[in-house]
Design brief:
The complex is a heterodimer of chains A (about 110) and B (about 325). With about 110 residues, chain A is mainly α. Chain A has helices spanning about 10-15, 30-35, 45-50, 55-60, 60-65, 70-75, 85-95. Chain A starts with 8 loop residues before the first helix and ends in a 16-residue tail after the last helix. Chain B is an alpha/beta fold. A four-stranded parallel sheet of chain B has the order 5-4-6-7. A three-stranded parallel sheet of chain B has the order 1-2-3. In chain B, helix 1 (about 1-20) packs parallel to helix 4 (about 80-85), helix 3 (about 50-65) runs antiparallel to helix 6 and helix 10 packs across helix 12 (about 230-235). The radius of gyration of chain B is 19 Å and the shape is globular. Classes of the chains: A mainly alpha (about 110), B alpha/beta (about 325). The structure holds iron/sulfur cluster (2 copies).
Chain lengths: ~110, ~325
């Protein structure tokens, strides 16, 4: 099966310059230290975004949502990749692109709590 | 999780937008901890709970019911569920924690108030205007919803002329100190965890506690907010010897809690892994976040007992009654 490439993926995902996936040098330290044993996070997923491999990104969306944002990878990353921030950015993209999460019209009566 | 994720995130977003919390709980449950303390409303310095400790027993009551139904505690909400949720507060109908469960968590802000009074700090609270910070929605990447919520929270602080906020848990500390300023121009609040303040004011107990504990650092305190030395200083100050696990301080291991709402099974596996490490060191564990506390305590199998750090510090105070 041919792999579809979406050359605009990075621009669709990226909200600001804080998404610094390009800094990743694919050393694998993050994968080695991750307490969740998430193999595809973050280096492969970031690579998919940079290469426009949207299908691969979507296929591994569970990894994006199961990240704890614990930053253990980040403090060990030699390239200062904003891993947790990048994962949040991917979620923002997937919330809309896959799950079509839209803010519903405001509820008529708000209770407190 | 694919089917439920839309609705889970949607329900949480709807709730935060219209009810100012991801899981709205009764007003009384937010403020009950302060009954009888006669704390003033507002003031330049306020103790802010962000509802975190109060929320846990409600989430746990939900989890217990939902576990029978699927992998995620909100998985059973259908599209219809989300629609109805806009008008009726479904989450609040789903589970009611026992008074004992609630009391276990309400003790923590009470403890903190006592500890702050011990070092001579004067502060007020915001009662029912002490809102949830939006941390979970921020983690899910829904910045638009959370930034709008942050603006509302900030207006409350302005209304009361608040200049300094004392926080109780890592997630509220991080949101108010490091996230809100990104969105709110001229953000003027000084935000400190009570642990930082107690250390700064040189908290000393009325009597030593003694004993040996192991400590679980919260990822957010340790790696986001760099609060590492203060809890150790305070625990040592009450006479407790602290045994450090391999993964501690800036290398701490997560309790798994952040995965709980979408992947409970993975969250549990992460908690067990962490408990295995800590239980080798001591039968007494210290946590400093309500999410760590509940997640690790659920995974102990009786090998280790976890208590919030405020309980350990209050053990060094003379009884009030
Ligand atoms: S540790 Fe940093 S540089 Fe290395 S693979 Fe992970 S993100 Fe890339
Ligand atoms: S932030 Fe996510 S990817 Fe990094 S170590 Fe923690 S769980 Fe793993």
């Amino acid at each position: 099966m041919a792999t579809l490439v979406n050359p605009n993926l990075i621009d669709q995902v990226k909200q600001s310059d804080a998404f610094n996936a390009a800094a990743c040098m694919n050393c694998g330290i993050c994968t080695a230290v991750c307490p969740m044993g998430i193999e595809h996070l973050p280096r492969e997923l970031f690579r998919y975004v940079l290469l426009g491999l949207e299908e691969d990104l979507l296929a591994h969306r569970d990894a994006v949502y199961s990240c704890l944002l614990c930053r253990l990878c980040e403090v060990n990353c030699p390239a200062e990749v904003h891993i947790a921030g990048n994962v949040r950015t991917l979620r923002h993209y997937l919330n809309q692109a896959v799950f079509h999460v839209k803010r519903m019209p405001r509820a008529r009566k708000a209770t407190t709590g | 999780m694919a089917i439920s994720t839309t609705h889970t995130i949607g329900i949480l977003a709807d709730n935060l937008e219209s009810r100012k919390s991801v899981l709205p709980i009764p007003k009384d449950a937010v403020t009950h901890w302060a009954d009888g303390l006669n704390l003033p409303r507002g003031g330049e310095t306020v103790l802010y709970t962000g509802q975190m400790y109060q929320l846990i027993p409600y989430i746990e009551a939900l989890v217990t019911q939902e576990r029978k139904l699927g992998d995620s505690w909100l998985a059973s909400f259908s599209g219809v569920g989300r629609f109805v949720n806009r008008f009726i507060n479904i989450a609040a109908l789903m589970g009611r924690p026992s008074p004992e469960e609630r009391q276990r968590y309400e003790r923590i802000p009470r403890n903190v108030a006592r500890l702050l009074q011990k070092v001579g700090l004067e502060f007020g609270i915001l009662y029912e205007e002490d809102w949830y910070s939006g941390a979970l929605m921020y983690d899910l990447g829904e910045d638009e919803v959370v930034s709008a919520h942050a603006a509302k929270v900030y207006r409350i602080f302005q209304k009361y002329g608040v200049k300094r906020v004392i926080t109780i848990d890592p997630h509220t500390t991080n949101m108010l100190r490091s996230v809100y300023p990104k969105w709110i121009p001229d953000y003027q609040l000084r935000v400190q965890s009570y642990l930082e303040l107690l250390a700064e004011y040189g908290f000393t107990p009325d009597h030593p506690v003694g004993g040996e504990v192991t400590v679980h650092d919260s990822c957010v305190y340790a790696r986001y907010e760099h609060i590492i030395d203060e809890p150790r200083f305070l625990l040592n100050g009450v006479g407790l010897a602290v045994k450090e696990p391999v993964h501690s301080k800036s290398r701490t291991w997560c309790c798994g809690g952040p995965a709980e709402s979408l992947f409970p099974a993975k969250a549990e596996a992460a908690a067990k892994q962490r408990v295995n490490e800590l239980a080798q060191l001591s039968s007494q564990g210290v946590t400093m976040c309500p999410i760590c506390w509940v997640n690790l305590e659920k995974a102990t199998d009786g090998r280790i007992h976890f208590q919030d750090i405020s309980e350990w510090l209050c053990a060094g105070l003379a009884p009030t009654e």
